[in-house]
Amino acid sequence: MKKTDTKYKNILVIEDNHAILDVITLILQSEAYKVNGLSKSANFMEHIDAFNPDLMILDIMLPDADGRVLLQELRLNEKTRHIPVLMISARYTKENLQNVEFKPDAFVAKPFDIDDLLDRIEGLLAGKNYM
Known about the structure:
By secondary structure, the protein is an alpha/beta fold. It has a single domain (about 5-125), classed as 3-Layer(aba) Sandwich (Rossmann fold). About 35% of the residues lie in helices and about 20% in strands. It has four helices and seven strands.
């Protein structure tokens, strides 16, 4: 995949750890993505409507919500069910997400390798599913 294919895609990141959110934001911006970051889930659907993300990075453990519940909300909504979701977590593993009704399109454990994260994002934007 050429880097020009990924330019100007919108990525919404919901991550409560500000250091991780900042790192992800800086990395993605350096790769020419437009990034909007949230540290909690409050009003996240309004952010989605306003930002129109091409992809979401969603932490499972948020201070005000469970990322798996947010994923379910996304999948049940006609306007957002098509958005690829990459879930991240320090506590959970990909195996923890195998038996849930609403699966993300990919999962990356924290701490993550930057190149792995970027490869997953590019793959998801190209239509791949890693689950």
